[in-house]
Amino acid sequence: MPGHIAEIAGAMRCLDDFMAAFNARDVAAFEATFNFPSIRLASNTLRVIEKGDHKPEMFDTGPLAEWSHSAWERRDVIHSGPDKVHFDTRFTRYRPDGSVIGGFDSIYVVTLEGGHWGVKARSSYAP
Questions:
Q1: pLDDT higher at 62 or 41
Q2: Residue of 28, 53, 70, 127 with fewest CB within 10 Å of its CB?
Q3: How far apart are CA 65 and CA 51, in angstroms?
Q4: In order of start, what are the domains of the chain with their CATH numbers?
């Protein structure tokens, strides 16, 4: 992917910030890693996410009820261009005691909009 090294680096930083904000449970910082509207396809459901849709309580219920933190296991570039990078990812969710909740393969699409790299779409096998 010659010629897109800077774009890949910018998109990768976005994913670094995405995971750091998620693990910190910092909703404002987490939302800053998106380009809205954003799409999430998971559990066979397509959801359009708008700014303000993420709430602090999302970390305490449902699939995140016993969650402590997550970590990237893989972030491989599939395609890249001047304003968009596709990633083949895998992340793992952990409980507070360090045991694994699960590992999930996902595709992330990170776009450059108005000078800002943000998650525009993701398709995941995570609940």
A1: 41
A2: 28
A3: 23
A4: 5-124 (3.10.450.50)
β-partners of residue 125 are none
Q: What CA–CA distance (Å, rounded) separates 103 from 99?
A: 11
C-alpha–C-alpha distance, residues 15 and 21, integer Å: 10
- Taking alpha carbons only, the member of 34, 15, 40, 38 closest to residue 91 is 15
Residue 2 tokens read as 């010659």
Strand partners, 42: 45
pLDDT in tens, 62-85: 889 999 999 999 999 999 999 999
In this prediction the pTM is 0.94
1 pLDDT above the threshold of 60: no
Q: Which residue has the tokens 């990768």?
A: 12
Residue 112 has pLDDT above 50, yes or no: yes
Residue 115 φ/ψ region, left for φ over 0, alpha for ψ in the -120 to 50 degree band, beta for the rest: left
Query: Could you write out the three-class secondary structure of 58-120?
Result: HHCCHHHCCCCEEEEEEEEEEEECCCEEEEEEEEEEECCCCCEEEEEEEEEEEEEECCEEEEE
